[in-house]
Amino acid sequence: MSALAWRPARAPIDAFLDWGAQAHGSTRPLALMRIALAVLTFVRFGAELSLYQGDSLSFLLLGVAFFALVTMMLVGYMAQAACAGVAIMLATMYFYMGHVLGQPGWGAHHIYILLAGVSLLALSPCGRSYSVDRYRELMRGRETPERRPLWAQRLIALQLGALYFWTAVDKTNWSFLSGERLEQAFTWTYTGRALEPLLAMGPLLPALAVVVVLVEYALAFAIFVRPWRAFVLPMGLALHATFYVLLPVNTYSATMMALYLALLDPDAAHRFLDRMQGHGVPAHRL
Hints:
The chain is mainly α. It has helices at 12-19, 28-45, 57-75, 79-100, 109-121, 132-139, 151-171, 174-177, 180-190, 204-222, 229-246, 250-259, 266-276; strands spanning 24-26, 147-149. It has 13 helices and 2 strands; from the N terminus they run αβαααααβααααααα.
């Protein structure tokens, strides 16, 4: 029997390590995630931390640090250090200002997922693409390969799966499945609004509640199954787009959609972006 006639089956742990700790690929999805989360951080906190809001020296210093670090994160200047600084500020806002001081909205779940995403980006080579860091290296004539270790991107994907699972567990009770919790949210949101008649549609809210829980349980596992992603990822994006337009959870929904970049095949995304940017296309056809 020739040496090629038999190959031992790969151990599941080897396949998992290839996907996780030993994964390598293009850093472009990470860079796009860095830019998207920087924009979301600006949108969420920019007005509240603007210098005209400052009523103390510490608040002014926080505002200056915020705008400096988030701008560095956005343009990719000292990208990993900038992400680490933004993560520290978000942690301060979430834990101290939100939970210790009780400042409304600063201890909300959407701040937590933003904090988690930025913290994991700080561990990733998110400045290897679409960044001032890369431009400076190119100007110095240095090689700047975009193919780097991606274990931090895999952690972001696992964070998404864990979030879906535990939010579904939190909703697996009669108060949610009966539509009661949705009715409370809709009453607060729609009373006096054009869509207030939705509250009178008895079976609608329980049906929506059951669908949301089933979809979240499914997404917790299905986002990791490569053959299913062509269907699963649009379903998840549609779920968050629906949340965005129906409920006041815009930061959470937009952050989740940005983190979906962690689920893309990085090399396939790289090739797609090359085609979109016209690389390899003759100049007269651009």
